Amino acid sequence: MQVSALQKARYTYKPKLPAILTGAIEEVALSFGEPARALEDGEALAALFKNTYGKPIVQFVKGKNEKITRPLTVGVILSGGQAPGGHNVIAGLYDGLKKGNSASRLLGFLGGPSGLLEDKALEFTDALINEYRNTGGFDIIGSGRTKIESPEQFAASLETAKKRGLDAVVIIGGDDSNTNAALLAEYFTAQGSAVQVIGCPKTIDGDLKNEHIEASFGFDTAAKTYSELIGNIERDAASARKYWHFIKLMGRSASHITLECALQTQPNVCLISEEAAAKKRSLVQLVEEICASIVRRAANKDNFGVVLIPEGLIEFVPEMKKLIQELNDLMANYADELTEISNFIDQVYWLDRHLSNESSGLFKTLPPEIARQLLADRDPHGNVQVSRIETEKLLIGMVEKKLGELTKLGAYTGKFSALAHFFGYEGRCAFPSNFDTDYCYSLGFTAFVLIAGGLTGYISSVKNLTARADLWIPGGIPLTMMMNMEHRHGSSKPVIKKALVELDGAPFKTFAASRETWAVKTSFHFPGAIQYYGPPEVCDQPTKTLVLEHAT
Ligand code: FBP
To answer: What is the pTM for the complete model shown?
Structure first.
Protein backbone atom coordinates (compact mmCIF):
# COMPACT_ATOMS: atom_id res chain seq x y z
CA MET A 1 0.00 0.00 0.00
CA GLN A 2 1.25 3.50 -0.89
CA VAL A 3 1.17 5.86 2.06
CA SER A 4 2.04 9.54 2.45
CA ALA A 5 5.36 10.61 3.94
CA LEU A 6 3.58 11.81 7.08
CA GLN A 7 1.70 8.54 7.51
CA LYS A 8 5.00 6.66 7.18
CA ALA A 9 6.56 8.89 9.80
CA ARG A 10 3.56 8.50 12.11
CA TYR A 11 3.90 4.70 12.02
CA THR A 12 7.12 5.11 13.96
CA TYR A 13 5.62 7.44 16.61
CA LYS A 14 5.50 5.75 20.02
CA PRO A 15 2.42 6.95 21.89
CA LYS A 16 3.12 8.12 25.43
CA LEU A 17 1.44 6.27 28.29
CA PRO A 18 0.83 7.06 31.97
CA ALA A 19 3.91 5.87 33.88
CA ILE A 20 2.05 3.07 35.68
CA LEU A 21 1.26 1.39 32.35
CA THR A 22 4.83 1.37 31.05
CA GLY A 23 6.39 -1.11 33.49
CA ALA A 24 5.82 -4.82 34.10
CA ILE A 25 2.16 -5.60 33.44
CA GLU A 26 1.90 -8.06 36.38
CA GLU A 27 2.56 -5.09 38.64
CA VAL A 28 -0.50 -3.06 37.64
CA ALA A 29 -3.10 -3.69 40.35
CA LEU A 30 -6.55 -2.21 40.90
CA SER A 31 -7.46 -0.07 43.89
CA PHE A 32 -11.18 0.37 44.67
CA GLY A 33 -12.75 3.50 46.19
CA GLU A 34 -16.11 3.94 47.90
CA PRO A 35 -19.30 2.81 46.09
CA ALA A 36 -20.08 5.54 43.55
CA ARG A 37 -23.51 7.14 43.30
CA ALA A 38 -25.03 9.16 40.45
CA LEU A 39 -25.44 12.88 41.11
CA GLU A 40 -29.15 12.68 40.30
CA ASP A 41 -31.88 10.04 40.15
CA GLY A 42 -29.87 7.51 42.18
CA GLU A 43 -32.93 5.52 43.30
CA ALA A 44 -34.38 5.16 39.82
CA LEU A 45 -30.97 4.16 38.43
CA ALA A 46 -30.37 1.65 41.23
CA ALA A 47 -33.72 0.05 40.40
CA LEU A 48 -32.92 -0.17 36.69
CA PHE A 49 -29.28 -1.27 37.10
CA LYS A 50 -29.68 -3.83 39.89
CA ASN A 51 -26.37 -5.52 39.08
CA THR A 52 -24.19 -2.64 38.00
CA TYR A 53 -25.23 0.42 40.04
CA GLY A 54 -23.17 1.58 43.03
CA LYS A 55 -19.82 0.11 42.01
CA PRO A 56 -16.64 1.87 43.14
CA ILE A 57 -14.33 4.13 41.15
CA VAL A 58 -11.14 2.26 40.26
CA GLN A 59 -7.55 3.48 40.06
CA PHE A 60 -4.42 1.63 39.06
CA VAL A 61 -1.64 1.22 41.62
CA LYS A 62 1.64 -0.65 41.76
CA GLY A 63 1.03 -4.15 43.19
CA LYS A 64 0.89 -7.87 42.31
CA ASN A 65 -1.79 -8.75 39.75
CA GLU A 66 -1.58 -12.36 38.59
CA LYS A 67 -5.00 -12.30 36.94
CA ILE A 68 -3.78 -9.78 34.38
CA THR A 69 -1.84 -12.38 32.38
CA ARG A 70 -4.71 -14.77 31.67
CA PRO A 71 -5.58 -15.07 27.96
CA LEU A 72 -8.60 -13.02 26.92
CA THR A 73 -10.83 -12.70 23.88
CA VAL A 74 -12.27 -9.24 23.44
CA GLY A 75 -14.53 -7.66 20.80
CA VAL A 76 -14.39 -3.94 19.99
CA ILE A 77 -16.95 -1.65 18.35
CA LEU A 78 -16.53 1.87 16.95
CA SER A 79 -19.86 3.64 17.37
CA GLY A 80 -21.25 6.90 15.98
CA GLY A 81 -19.42 9.72 14.21
CA GLN A 82 -15.71 9.46 13.44
CA ALA A 83 -13.26 11.11 15.83
CA PRO A 84 -9.47 11.34 15.38
CA GLY A 85 -7.70 8.71 17.47
CA GLY A 86 -10.16 5.80 17.25
CA HIS A 87 -7.52 3.59 15.65
CA ASN A 88 -5.20 4.25 18.55
CA VAL A 89 -7.79 3.20 21.13
CA ILE A 90 -7.87 -0.12 19.29
CA ALA A 91 -4.04 -0.23 19.08
CA GLY A 92 -3.71 0.48 22.83
CA LEU A 93 -6.26 -2.21 23.65
CA TYR A 94 -4.53 -4.69 21.33
CA ASP A 95 -1.06 -3.97 22.69
CA GLY A 96 -2.35 -4.20 26.28
CA LEU A 97 -4.00 -7.57 25.57
CA LYS A 98 -0.85 -8.92 23.92
CA LYS A 99 1.35 -7.59 26.69
CA GLY A 100 -0.87 -9.42 29.19
CA ASN A 101 -0.75 -12.66 27.22
CA SER A 102 0.36 -13.14 23.62
CA ALA A 103 -2.45 -15.70 23.14
CA SER A 104 -5.12 -13.06 23.80
CA ARG A 105 -7.27 -12.14 20.81
CA LEU A 106 -9.00 -8.95 19.69
CA LEU A 107 -11.97 -9.00 17.31
CA GLY A 108 -13.35 -5.92 15.62
CA PHE A 109 -17.08 -5.80 14.90
CA LEU A 110 -17.72 -4.30 11.49
CA GLY A 111 -19.77 -1.17 10.81
CA GLY A 112 -20.62 -0.25 14.41
CA PRO A 113 -23.03 -1.96 16.83
CA SER A 114 -24.78 -3.72 13.92
CA GLY A 115 -21.59 -5.82 13.56
CA LEU A 116 -22.26 -7.28 17.01
CA LEU A 117 -25.95 -7.87 16.26
CA GLU A 118 -25.21 -9.55 12.95
CA ASP A 119 -21.98 -11.20 14.06
CA LYS A 120 -19.81 -9.56 11.43
CA ALA A 121 -16.24 -9.31 12.68
CA LEU A 122 -12.60 -9.60 11.78
CA GLU A 123 -9.68 -10.61 13.96
CA PHE A 124 -6.89 -8.08 14.43
CA THR A 125 -3.35 -9.12 13.62
CA ASP A 126 -0.05 -7.31 14.14
CA ALA A 127 0.05 -6.49 10.43
CA LEU A 128 -3.44 -4.96 10.40
CA ILE A 129 -2.92 -2.92 13.57
CA ASN A 130 0.46 -1.66 12.34
CA GLU A 131 -1.14 -0.35 9.16
CA TYR A 132 -3.45 1.92 11.17
CA ARG A 133 -1.30 3.07 14.11
CA ASN A 134 -1.50 6.81 14.81
CA THR A 135 -3.77 7.45 11.82
CA GLY A 136 -7.14 9.22 11.72
CA GLY A 137 -10.45 7.68 10.69
CA PHE A 138 -12.45 4.65 11.73
CA ASP A 139 -11.90 2.75 8.50
CA ILE A 140 -10.06 -0.14 10.15
CA ILE A 141 -13.48 -1.69 10.96
CA GLY A 142 -15.95 1.10 10.15
CA SER A 143 -18.55 2.68 12.41
CA GLY A 144 -22.33 2.95 12.57
CA ARG A 145 -25.18 4.48 14.53
CA THR A 146 -27.37 1.41 15.16
CA LYS A 147 -28.81 1.58 18.65
CA ILE A 148 -29.09 -1.64 20.64
CA GLU A 149 -32.49 -1.18 22.28
CA SER A 150 -35.01 -3.96 21.62
CA PRO A 151 -35.07 -7.21 23.66
CA GLU A 152 -34.22 -9.09 20.44
CA GLN A 153 -31.15 -6.88 19.89
CA PHE A 154 -29.91 -7.45 23.45
CA ALA A 155 -30.40 -11.19 23.02
CA ALA A 156 -28.61 -11.15 19.65
CA SER A 157 -25.66 -9.29 21.22
CA LEU A 158 -25.32 -11.92 23.92
CA GLU A 159 -25.60 -14.72 21.42
CA THR A 160 -22.75 -13.30 19.33
CA ALA A 161 -20.62 -12.74 22.44
CA LYS A 162 -21.15 -16.35 23.52
CA LYS A 163 -20.60 -17.77 20.05
CA ARG A 164 -17.33 -15.86 19.73
CA GLY A 165 -16.23 -16.85 23.24
CA LEU A 166 -15.82 -13.20 24.26
CA ASP A 167 -14.66 -12.21 27.71
CA ALA A 168 -15.56 -8.60 27.02
CA VAL A 169 -16.94 -6.08 24.56
CA VAL A 170 -15.42 -2.59 24.32
CA ILE A 171 -17.71 0.14 22.96
CA ILE A 172 -15.94 3.26 21.72
CA GLY A 173 -18.59 5.96 21.50
CA GLY A 174 -20.29 9.12 22.69
CA ASP A 175 -22.98 9.62 25.34
CA ASP A 176 -25.62 7.52 23.56
CA SER A 177 -23.21 4.67 22.80
CA ASN A 178 -21.89 4.61 26.35
CA THR A 179 -25.49 4.61 27.64
CA ASN A 180 -25.89 1.55 25.44
CA ALA A 181 -22.72 0.07 26.97
CA ALA A 182 -24.21 0.49 30.46
CA LEU A 183 -27.47 -1.17 29.42
CA LEU A 184 -25.61 -4.03 27.75
CA ALA A 185 -23.42 -4.58 30.83
CA GLU A 186 -26.53 -4.76 33.02
CA TYR A 187 -28.29 -7.10 30.60
CA PHE A 188 -25.34 -9.51 30.30
CA THR A 189 -24.95 -9.71 34.09
CA ALA A 190 -28.70 -10.10 34.65
CA GLN A 191 -28.66 -13.02 32.20
CA GLY A 192 -25.96 -14.70 34.28
CA SER A 193 -23.32 -14.09 31.61
CA ALA A 194 -19.75 -13.20 32.55
CA VAL A 195 -19.20 -11.16 29.38
CA GLN A 196 -18.00 -7.73 30.48
CA VAL A 197 -18.70 -4.38 28.80
CA ILE A 198 -16.32 -1.42 28.91
CA GLY A 199 -16.89 1.99 27.29
CA CYS A 200 -14.41 4.56 25.92
CA PRO A 201 -15.24 8.30 25.66
CA LYS A 202 -15.29 9.38 22.02
CA THR A 203 -16.78 12.41 20.25
CA ILE A 204 -15.37 15.46 18.57
CA ASP A 205 -18.31 17.36 20.10
CA GLY A 206 -16.57 17.34 23.51
CA ASP A 207 -19.86 16.89 25.36
CA LEU A 208 -19.06 13.57 27.03
CA LYS A 209 -17.16 14.95 29.96
CA ASN A 210 -17.55 15.38 33.69
CA GLU A 211 -15.48 15.36 36.84
CA HIS A 212 -13.93 12.01 35.87
CA ILE A 213 -13.84 12.19 32.10
CA GLU A 214 -11.86 15.34 31.42
CA ALA A 215 -12.28 15.20 27.64
CA SER A 216 -13.70 12.97 24.96
CA PHE A 217 -11.09 11.97 22.42
CA GLY A 218 -11.13 13.62 19.02
CA PHE A 219 -12.17 17.04 20.33
CA ASP A 220 -8.55 18.19 20.50
CA THR A 221 -7.70 17.33 16.89
CA ALA A 222 -11.01 18.38 15.37
CA ALA A 223 -11.06 21.79 17.12
CA LYS A 224 -7.42 22.41 16.15
CA THR A 225 -8.09 21.45 12.53
CA TYR A 226 -11.04 23.86 12.30
CA SER A 227 -9.02 26.56 14.10
CA GLU A 228 -6.29 26.24 11.49
CA LEU A 229 -8.86 26.73 8.71
CA ILE A 230 -10.53 29.66 10.49
CA GLY A 231 -7.14 31.31 11.06
CA ASN A 232 -6.36 30.94 7.36
CA ILE A 233 -9.69 32.50 6.44
CA GLU A 234 -9.12 35.34 8.90
CA ARG A 235 -5.79 36.12 7.21
CA ASP A 236 -7.48 36.04 3.83
CA ALA A 237 -10.25 38.32 5.10
CA ALA A 238 -7.73 40.78 6.54
CA SER A 239 -5.77 40.73 3.26
CA ALA A 240 -8.67 41.11 0.81
CA ARG A 241 -10.74 43.33 3.15
CA LYS A 242 -13.95 42.66 1.24
CA TYR A 243 -15.70 39.59 2.69
CA TRP A 244 -17.55 38.64 5.80
CA HIS A 245 -17.11 34.89 6.34
CA PHE A 246 -19.91 33.04 8.14
CA ILE A 247 -18.48 29.73 9.38
CA LYS A 248 -20.67 27.01 10.85
CA LEU A 249 -18.79 24.50 12.97
CA MET A 250 -19.74 20.93 13.71
CA GLY A 251 -20.95 19.84 17.14
CA ARG A 252 -24.39 18.29 17.21
CA SER A 253 -25.64 20.03 20.30
CA ALA A 254 -23.05 21.60 22.58
CA SER A 255 -20.97 24.60 21.40
CA HIS A 256 -17.64 23.37 22.84
CA ILE A 257 -15.96 23.17 19.41
CA THR A 258 -17.10 26.66 18.42
CA LEU A 259 -16.02 28.10 21.77
CA GLU A 260 -12.59 26.44 21.55
CA CYS A 261 -12.17 27.74 17.98
CA ALA A 262 -13.11 31.24 19.15
CA LEU A 263 -10.51 31.09 21.93
CA GLN A 264 -7.94 29.95 19.36
CA THR A 265 -8.76 32.41 16.57
CA GLN A 266 -10.45 35.49 18.12
CA PRO A 267 -13.14 36.11 15.47
CA ASN A 268 -15.35 39.21 15.35
CA VAL A 269 -18.51 37.39 16.33
CA CYS A 270 -19.05 33.96 17.84
CA LEU A 271 -22.51 32.75 18.76
CA ILE A 272 -22.84 30.23 21.57
CA SER A 273 -26.00 28.11 21.53
CA GLU A 274 -26.16 27.65 25.29
CA GLU A 275 -26.09 31.43 25.78
CA ALA A 276 -28.79 31.95 23.15
CA ALA A 277 -30.99 29.46 25.03
CA ALA A 278 -30.24 30.86 28.50
CA LYS A 279 -30.96 34.43 27.39
CA LYS A 280 -33.93 33.31 25.28
CA ARG A 281 -32.52 35.08 22.23
CA SER A 282 -34.62 35.02 19.08
CA LEU A 283 -33.07 34.62 15.62
CA VAL A 284 -33.79 38.31 15.02
CA GLN A 285 -31.83 39.29 18.14
CA LEU A 286 -28.87 37.13 17.08
CA VAL A 287 -28.92 38.81 13.68
CA GLU A 288 -28.89 42.21 15.42
CA GLU A 289 -25.85 41.11 17.42
CA ILE A 290 -23.99 40.22 14.21
CA CYS A 291 -25.10 43.45 12.52
CA ALA A 292 -23.87 45.53 15.47
CA SER A 293 -20.33 44.30 14.78
CA ILE A 294 -20.66 44.78 11.00
CA VAL A 295 -21.91 48.35 11.42
CA ARG A 296 -19.22 49.35 13.92
CA ARG A 297 -16.46 47.82 11.83
CA ALA A 298 -17.83 49.50 8.70
CA ALA A 299 -17.52 52.85 10.49
CA ASN A 300 -13.76 52.09 10.69
CA LYS A 301 -13.77 51.07 6.99
CA ASP A 302 -13.34 47.42 7.97
CA ASN A 303 -15.90 45.84 5.69
CA PHE A 304 -14.71 42.34 6.46
CA GLY A 305 -14.86 39.90 9.31
CA VAL A 306 -15.47 36.40 10.60
CA VAL A 307 -18.56 35.02 12.35
CA LEU A 308 -18.54 31.58 14.02
CA ILE A 309 -21.82 29.69 14.33
CA PRO A 310 -22.27 26.42 16.25
CA GLU A 311 -23.99 23.66 14.31
CA GLY A 312 -26.61 23.13 17.01
CA LEU A 313 -27.62 26.83 17.28
CA ILE A 314 -30.87 26.33 15.43
CA GLU A 315 -32.10 23.90 18.08
CA PHE A 316 -31.28 26.24 20.98
CA VAL A 317 -33.06 29.36 19.73
CA PRO A 318 -36.39 29.04 21.61
CA GLU A 319 -38.81 29.61 18.70
CA MET A 320 -36.80 27.29 16.39
CA LYS A 321 -36.53 24.67 19.12
CA LYS A 322 -40.31 24.63 19.47
CA LEU A 323 -40.76 24.35 15.69
CA ILE A 324 -38.21 21.51 15.42
CA GLN A 325 -39.79 19.61 18.31
CA GLU A 326 -43.22 19.90 16.73
CA LEU A 327 -41.81 18.76 13.37
CA ASN A 328 -40.03 15.80 15.02
CA ASP A 329 -43.27 14.71 16.69
CA LEU A 330 -45.32 15.10 13.52
CA MET A 331 -42.74 13.24 11.46
CA ALA A 332 -42.68 10.40 13.99
CA ASN A 333 -46.45 10.19 14.49
CA TYR A 334 -47.61 10.77 10.90
CA ALA A 335 -44.66 9.19 9.09
CA ASP A 336 -46.83 7.26 6.58
CA GLU A 337 -49.15 10.15 5.83
CA LEU A 338 -46.24 12.55 5.31
CA THR A 339 -44.22 10.24 3.05
CA GLU A 340 -47.21 10.06 0.71
CA ILE A 341 -47.05 13.82 0.19
CA SER A 342 -44.12 14.09 -2.16
CA ASN A 343 -44.66 17.69 -3.22
CA PHE A 344 -43.03 20.33 -0.98
CA ILE A 345 -45.88 22.87 -1.38
CA ASP A 346 -48.43 20.24 -0.32
CA GLN A 347 -46.22 19.36 2.66
CA VAL A 348 -46.27 23.01 3.72
CA TYR A 349 -50.10 23.08 3.49
CA TRP A 350 -50.30 19.88 5.54
CA LEU A 351 -47.92 21.25 8.15
CA ASP A 352 -49.86 24.51 8.31
CA ARG A 353 -52.85 22.49 9.53
CA HIS A 354 -50.86 20.49 12.09
CA LEU A 355 -48.27 22.88 13.55
CA SER A 356 -49.12 25.38 16.28
CA ASN A 357 -49.89 28.89 14.97
CA GLU A 358 -46.56 30.23 16.18
CA SER A 359 -44.50 27.45 14.60
CA SER A 360 -46.48 27.49 11.39
CA GLY A 361 -45.93 31.26 11.11
CA LEU A 362 -42.19 30.83 11.61
CA PHE A 363 -41.97 27.89 9.20
CA LYS A 364 -43.53 29.97 6.44
CA THR A 365 -41.04 32.81 6.89
CA LEU A 366 -38.03 30.52 6.43
CA PRO A 367 -36.26 30.43 3.06
CA PRO A 368 -37.56 27.35 1.13
CA GLU A 369 -34.14 25.58 1.19
CA ILE A 370 -34.00 25.84 4.99
CA ALA A 371 -37.63 24.70 5.35
CA ARG A 372 -36.82 21.70 3.12
CA GLN A 373 -33.71 20.90 5.19
CA LEU A 374 -35.85 20.91 8.36
CA LEU A 375 -38.05 18.25 6.77
CA ALA A 376 -35.14 16.00 5.73
CA ASP A 377 -34.69 12.51 7.23
CA ARG A 378 -34.21 12.18 10.99
CA ASP A 379 -31.30 10.30 12.58
CA PRO A 380 -31.92 6.88 14.22
CA HIS A 381 -32.81 8.70 17.46
CA GLY A 382 -35.58 10.71 15.71
CA ASN A 383 -33.61 13.98 15.79
CA VAL A 384 -33.22 16.47 13.00
CA GLN A 385 -29.75 16.23 11.43
CA VAL A 386 -28.44 19.68 12.28
CA SER A 387 -25.26 19.27 10.23
CA ARG A 388 -27.49 19.38 7.12
CA ILE A 389 -29.21 22.67 7.99
CA GLU A 390 -27.48 25.63 6.45
CA THR A 391 -27.81 27.99 9.42
CA GLU A 392 -24.86 30.00 8.10
CA LYS A 393 -26.80 30.79 4.90
CA LEU A 394 -29.99 31.52 6.83
CA LEU A 395 -28.12 34.06 8.95
CA ILE A 396 -26.41 35.67 5.93
CA GLY A 397 -29.83 36.19 4.32
CA MET A 398 -31.26 37.73 7.49
CA VAL A 399 -28.20 39.93 8.02
CA GLU A 400 -28.41 41.22 4.42
CA LYS A 401 -32.05 42.13 4.99
CA LYS A 402 -31.34 43.91 8.27
CA LEU A 403 -28.39 45.84 6.79
CA GLY A 404 -30.70 46.94 3.95
CA GLU A 405 -33.07 48.38 6.54
CA LEU A 406 -30.23 50.09 8.39
CA THR A 407 -28.94 51.56 5.13
CA LYS A 408 -32.34 53.11 4.44
CA LEU A 409 -32.30 54.62 7.92
CA GLY A 410 -28.80 56.00 7.28
CA ALA A 411 -27.40 53.92 10.14
CA TYR A 412 -25.09 51.83 7.90
CA THR A 413 -22.96 52.95 5.00
CA GLY A 414 -20.63 49.98 4.57
CA LYS A 415 -20.43 47.26 1.92
CA PHE A 416 -21.47 43.73 2.82
CA SER A 417 -20.44 40.70 0.84
CA ALA A 418 -20.67 37.36 2.64
CA LEU A 419 -19.32 33.84 2.10
CA ALA A 420 -20.65 30.74 3.83
CA HIS A 421 -18.56 27.79 5.10
CA PHE A 422 -19.26 24.65 7.07
CA PHE A 423 -16.36 22.85 8.76
CA GLY A 424 -17.25 19.45 10.09
CA TYR A 425 -16.22 16.39 8.13
CA GLU A 426 -12.87 18.08 7.40
CA GLY A 427 -11.80 17.53 11.01
CA ARG A 428 -13.26 14.19 12.05
CA CYS A 429 -10.63 11.97 10.45
CA ALA A 430 -7.52 14.14 10.59
CA PHE A 431 -4.26 12.54 11.75
CA PRO A 432 -4.74 12.69 15.53
CA SER A 433 -2.75 15.40 17.29
CA ASN A 434 -0.04 14.14 19.63
CA PHE A 435 -2.49 14.73 22.48
CA ASP A 436 -5.20 12.54 20.91
CA THR A 437 -2.64 9.98 19.75
CA ASP A 438 -1.35 9.51 23.30
CA TYR A 439 -4.73 9.91 25.02
CA CYS A 440 -6.45 7.35 22.78
CA TYR A 441 -3.68 4.80 23.13
CA SER A 442 -3.85 5.26 26.91
CA LEU A 443 -7.66 4.87 26.91
CA GLY A 444 -7.37 1.60 24.97
CA PHE A 445 -4.61 0.25 27.22
CA THR A 446 -6.64 1.26 30.29
CA ALA A 447 -9.69 -0.58 28.91
CA PHE A 448 -7.55 -3.73 28.77
CA VAL A 449 -6.54 -3.40 32.45
CA LEU A 450 -10.22 -2.94 33.43
CA ILE A 451 -11.19 -6.05 31.47
CA ALA A 452 -8.33 -8.09 32.97
CA GLY A 453 -9.58 -6.91 36.38
CA GLY A 454 -12.95 -8.55 35.66
CA LEU A 455 -14.91 -5.27 35.65
CA THR A 456 -18.08 -4.55 33.72
CA GLY A 457 -20.22 -1.42 33.24
CA TYR A 458 -17.17 0.87 33.45
CA ILE A 459 -15.79 3.58 31.18
CA SER A 460 -12.07 3.87 30.60
CA SER A 461 -10.84 7.05 32.26
CA VAL A 462 -7.52 8.87 31.97
CA LYS A 463 -7.20 11.98 34.12
CA ASN A 464 -4.79 14.84 34.81
CA LEU A 465 -4.63 15.51 31.08
CA THR A 466 -2.98 18.93 31.22
CA ALA A 467 0.12 17.35 32.76
CA ARG A 468 2.78 15.38 30.87
CA ALA A 469 1.47 12.00 29.69
CA ASP A 470 3.59 10.02 32.16
CA LEU A 471 1.72 11.84 34.96
CA TRP A 472 -1.74 10.98 33.60
CA ILE A 473 -3.94 8.93 35.95
CA PRO A 474 -5.66 5.91 34.40
CA GLY A 475 -8.63 4.10 35.96
CA GLY A 476 -12.28 3.17 35.56
CA ILE A 477 -15.55 4.97 36.32
CA PRO A 478 -18.88 3.12 36.71
CA LEU A 479 -21.01 4.19 33.75
CA THR A 480 -24.16 4.41 35.87
CA MET A 481 -22.47 7.10 37.96
CA MET A 482 -22.53 9.42 34.93
CA MET A 483 -26.22 8.84 34.23
CA ASN A 484 -29.52 10.52 35.05
CA MET A 485 -33.13 10.03 34.00
CA GLU A 486 -34.31 12.10 31.04
CA HIS A 487 -37.57 12.40 29.18
CA ARG A 488 -36.94 11.00 25.70
CA HIS A 489 -39.60 10.19 23.10
CA GLY A 490 -42.47 10.06 25.55
CA SER A 491 -40.87 8.18 28.46
CA SER A 492 -38.28 8.56 31.18
CA LYS A 493 -34.99 6.88 30.20
CA PRO A 494 -31.59 6.41 31.85
CA VAL A 495 -28.99 8.34 29.84
CA ILE A 496 -25.47 9.70 30.27
CA LYS A 497 -25.80 13.42 30.85
CA LYS A 498 -24.60 15.57 27.93
CA ALA A 499 -22.15 18.25 29.06
CA LEU A 500 -23.12 21.57 27.49
CA VAL A 501 -21.05 24.77 27.61
CA GLU A 502 -21.35 26.23 31.11
CA LEU A 503 -21.86 29.97 31.05
CA ASP A 504 -20.15 30.33 34.42
CA GLY A 505 -17.24 28.12 33.32
CA ALA A 506 -13.75 29.51 32.66
CA PRO A 507 -13.71 28.91 28.86
CA PHE A 508 -16.94 30.87 28.26
CA LYS A 509 -16.01 33.61 30.73
CA THR A 510 -12.60 34.04 29.07
CA PHE A 511 -14.27 34.40 25.70
CA ALA A 512 -16.96 36.75 27.04
CA ALA A 513 -14.31 39.02 28.57
CA SER A 514 -12.78 39.71 25.13
CA ARG A 515 -15.60 39.51 22.64
CA GLU A 516 -16.56 43.21 22.81
CA THR A 517 -13.06 44.11 21.66
CA TRP A 518 -12.94 41.42 18.97
CA ALA A 519 -16.32 42.61 17.61
CA VAL A 520 -14.83 45.97 16.59
CA LYS A 521 -11.06 45.69 16.46
CA THR A 522 -9.44 43.11 14.19
CA SER A 523 -7.81 40.82 16.76
CA PHE A 524 -7.42 37.66 14.66
CA HIS A 525 -5.15 34.91 15.95
CA PHE A 526 -3.57 32.35 13.64
CA PRO A 527 -2.96 28.96 15.28
CA GLY A 528 -1.66 27.31 12.07
CA ALA A 529 -1.71 23.61 11.26
CA ILE A 530 -1.39 20.87 13.89
CA GLN A 531 2.30 20.07 14.31
CA TYR A 532 3.41 16.52 15.03
CA TYR A 533 7.15 17.10 15.36
CA GLY A 534 8.90 19.90 17.19
CA PRO A 535 9.03 21.50 20.63
CA PRO A 536 6.30 20.50 23.15
CA GLU A 537 4.83 24.03 23.30
CA VAL A 538 4.08 23.72 19.58
CA CYS A 539 3.17 20.01 19.38
CA ASP A 540 1.82 18.75 22.67
CA GLN A 541 -0.45 21.50 24.00
CA PRO A 542 -3.98 20.45 24.97
CA THR A 543 -6.96 22.61 24.02
CA LYS A 544 -7.50 25.99 25.68
CA THR A 545 -10.80 24.62 26.97
CA LEU A 546 -9.04 21.85 28.89
CA VAL A 547 -6.37 24.18 30.24
CA LEU A 548 -8.93 26.77 31.40
CA GLU A 549 -11.15 24.13 32.97
CA HIS A 550 -8.16 22.71 34.86
CA ALA A 551 -7.00 26.10 36.08
CA THR A 552 -10.25 26.63 38.05
P1 FBP B 1 -20.90 11.53 17.69
O2 FBP B 1 -21.65 12.21 18.78
O3 FBP B 1 -21.45 10.21 17.33
O4 FBP B 1 -19.44 11.48 18.00
O5 FBP B 1 -21.03 12.38 16.34
C6 FBP B 1 -20.71 13.69 16.29
C7 FBP B 1 -21.02 14.36 14.96
O8 FBP B 1 -19.83 14.61 14.24
C9 FBP B 1 -21.80 15.66 15.20
O10 FBP B 1 -20.92 16.71 15.47
C11 FBP B 1 -22.58 15.81 13.94
O12 FBP B 1 -23.75 16.55 14.15
C13 FBP B 1 -22.91 14.39 13.58
O14 FBP B 1 -21.87 13.59 14.13
C15 FBP B 1 -23.00 14.16 12.11
O16 FBP B 1 -23.47 12.89 11.88
P17 FBP B 1 -23.19 12.04 10.58
O18 FBP B 1 -21.79 11.56 10.66
O19 FBP B 1 -24.15 10.92 10.70
O20 FBP B 1 -23.40 12.94 9.41
So the answer is: 0.94
